[in-house]
Structure formats: C-alpha cells, structure tokens
Amino acid sequence: MAVQDDAHPPHSWKPLSRSEQARFDLGYAVFNTEWVPANSPAGRIDGLGPVFNVQGCDACHNSRRRGRGPRGDGEAPGDLVVQLGGTDLYGRVLNTAAIPGFKPEGQVWIHYTSRRVRLADDTTIELHEPNYRIANLAGPPLPGGTVLSPRMPPAVQGAGLLELVPQSELESVARLQKRATRDVRGRISWLRTDHGRVIGRLGWQAGQATVIDQVAAAFSREMGLTNPVAAFDDCGRWDAACRTAPNGGVPEVAPDLFEAVVAFERWHAVPVAKMPDRSALGAQLFARIGCADCHRSTLAIDTGAVIHPYTDLLLHNLGVGLADRNLSGALIPSAWRTAPLWGLHASLVANQPPRLLHDGRARSVEEAVLWHEGEALRARDAYSHLNVQQRQSLIDWIAGL
Q1: pLDDT at residue 285 above 80?
Q2: pLDDT tens-place string over residues 43-72
Q3: At what angle do helices 255-267 and 18-31 cross, to 10 degrees?
Q4: What percent of the chain stands above pLDDT 70?
C-alpha cells in the first residue's frame, strides 16, 4: 500500500498556481510547527496557552493522519481531547497542559472494561469500553451534569472536498435512504450561527461548517492561540489569570499564517490506496450487508466532480454503546456523522496500533464494526453472520481504502 507521511510531502487535489502553492507550502510548514509561549524568541510562532493540550497541529494529526489515541488504562494522551458540555467552567475543552507559571485545568484518566461479542460461528471478539475520570482540577469541581465528549483527531486530508458537497446532494441522499432502507434515517446537521442556519459537514458530529471553523476552533481550544476567527483563548470563566496572560500578538496566529493553514487543509488530497487482491469480494460484501447505506462510495461536489469518501455526511443514531455520558453516568443521546473511510489505509500502516471511532476505543476495523448499533444494527448483525473468510475479505477491503 502507498503510504504518505512527513517523509513524503503532501499533494493537492487540484492544480495550484504558483501563489497557491506557496500558501499550501506555508500552511504545511505551520501545520508541522510547535508553538511556544508568548514572548519567546521564536518569531511569529509564540503565544501558546497559557493552558493547552498540544503544541502543534501535527501532534494530534500525525503526518496529517488520524490521532494515535490511547494505548490502554492510564492518563489520556494529549491527542485525545475531552470536550465539555453543559458548563462553561473550563471552556469548551479541558486543557491538560500549561506553560510555565500556570496549571493544567485537569487530568483525564481512562479505565477500560471488556465487552464480549459472540459472532454467528461462535467466534468471540473482545471489545474495550472506556470509562473516564477527571482528576486534579485547577479550579472548582465540575457539576454532575457536565457532559464528557472524548474526541480523537480525524485525518485532515480531503476536508476541503467534503466542504464542497452541496445541500442538494445531502438532501438527495437522505431521501434515498428513507426510500431504500427500513432503519437508516440520516439527517443533515443544521448549525445556528450569527448569519443564520448553515450545514455542518466536518467533525465527528458534523459540528463544524467549514475548514475555517475547524482550524479556528483547534487553534483556540486545543493550543490556546487566538486567531482571526476565534479572538479569545478557551479559558474557564473562573480563571482570570488565563484571560489576562501575556499574548503573542493580536491575534497570536497572524492572518497570513491562519489563511495558509486553511488553504493547506482545504487543498490537501487523500492519499491513494492500493486495494488488496480480494477487493472485489470485499466491495460486494460492503454493499450487501448494508455498510454502503451510510458509507456511500460517491458524492457529488460543487465543482461538478464526484468524490469517493465513503460517507454520506449525515447524522445517524448508532445506539447507546457509543453515546457520550455525563459525570453522573447518565447517557446523552448522541448522533454521529458517518465517518469518511477514505485514506484509512494511511492510518493503519503507520507502524502503530490502530485506534478507531470517535474516542479511539476500537483497536481494529472489526472492533469498530461491532460497536455499531442503532441505525447500523442490521449491518452489524449481517457482518456477524459472515463466515471467517468473508469477514477477512471485508476487513481487508475496508482497511485498504
């Protein structure tokens, strides 16, 4: 399989002019830069924090791939970001690192419990279910109703193409699902903004409308860097020291650097995969058991072209097993955007164990399939009734996308 990493410079999905290529290259350089605290002798790349999770984009999206995620019980790594809902005590994200002179907002600890799934041929698969604990808070305790939303960094390749899928295409796909299937009922993610309703296409729950929004949120919430879109650090409302900390300029991510990162992510192509020998059978099974109902192989985009992201960009109920919880343990109804599968091979051949799904709980493609419930329950059950050779052909095919 062809692998694209930092030893192989990224390429764009469209021809770039000389000036566009310069912006793309600058964005790539910024993407791989580690930011430093304000007033450090490092030119325009200072202003980190004062509280943060990681120091640069590549720390989460290593080689532009998915995050590496947790490896087992213990403290969560920096690239597993825990978003907080239902409270503004600590901002939108719990920041687990800090620059000198400041304290991290807290720590996230994970403990996994086993859940066994028996397939139709009596094969038993062990799933790992994560349980989260927040410790060593720097400020007041979190209310019991605080929703914990652990999120793995998705791959950045292809985001600009997903942004170009028009509303009409999403509406058409949703209508087709309702006519063709009994259980699958995808819906568009409508987001409220100061300028009215817009469609969310990006993020685990389609909570971001554009690449600009996604980049701005990551800089602000996960690196503590103000930027042309997000003018404030993600400080807790009790943390005056955070809000008044020295800055690295206004904004800390200068407009030209911000725009370059946006251009880089918008134009970044998905690495091309070489499908395994059994790809024909795998593709047939993918469609036959129902995976393709949501993981659609083709979508039209505004340019008139067709892309192959293996997603419908719609929200679906995937059951209680994948739902978020609050600190009191109550389940929070969760709808998930169908995760794009294109470029998956680049994550699975990166000489590190795979960590899939929104919180990295799945240690293989098979585990990820078996966590699907809700609207995907029929497809999951159909997978469990395949024989071992069919399952392997399907897994090989998915892993080669």
Answers
A1: yes
A2: 779 999 999 999 999 998 876 677 788 889
A3: 100
A4: 95
pTM check: above 0.90: yes
Question: Which of helix, strand or coil describes residue 268?
Answer: strand
Bridge partners of 337, per DSSP, are 315
pLDDT above 50: residue 224: yes
From the CB of residue 118, how many other CB atoms can be counted at a distance below 10 Å? 10
Q: How far apart are CA 124 and CA 317, in angstroms?
A: 25
Question: Which ranges constitute the DSSP H helices of 302-364?
Answer: 344-348
Question: Crossing angle for the helix pair 279-288 and 388-399, nearest 10 degrees?
Answer: 100
Cα–Cα distance between 355 and 44 in angstroms, integer?
34
Q: For residues 95 and 348, is the Cβ–Cβ distance under 8 A?
A: no
Q: What CA–CA distance (Å, rounded) separates 263 from 259? A: 6
Six-digit token pair at 167?
């509303």
**H-run or E-run covering 196:** strand 196-200
Q: Is the pLDDT of residue 5 over 70?
A: no
Residue with tokens 């970001």: 81
Which residues make beta-bridge pairs with 93?
83
User: At residue 112, what are phi and psi to the nearest 5 degrees?
Assistant: -100, 135
* pLDDT at position 349: 66
Whether the CA torsion 332, 221, 138, 34 is positive or negative: it is positive
